[in-house]
Amino acid sequence: MRSPENVLESLKSKACNQSYKYERLYRNLYNPQFYLLAYQRIQAKPGNMTAGTDGKTIDGMGMARINALIEKMRDFSYQPNPARRTYIP
Hints:
Layout: H1 4-14, H2 32-42, H3 63-74
């Protein structure tokens, strides 16, 4: 598998071309390194230990959770929770 940094750089460069059509993006989510990179990028930012709509924090992210998520996506049984919409008056 390609490194997440290389894939993200490639996607970023192709995003400048409005006529470019992305294909097979989903397969990138089968790479555990993507999740580890995402975790590294957001863990130190303030407020990231706040629980999401599912009640989980990124503090509980580990290889077991990543592998379970990938397996659910591979067999198409992953059902994300709906995002909570917050209206600002």
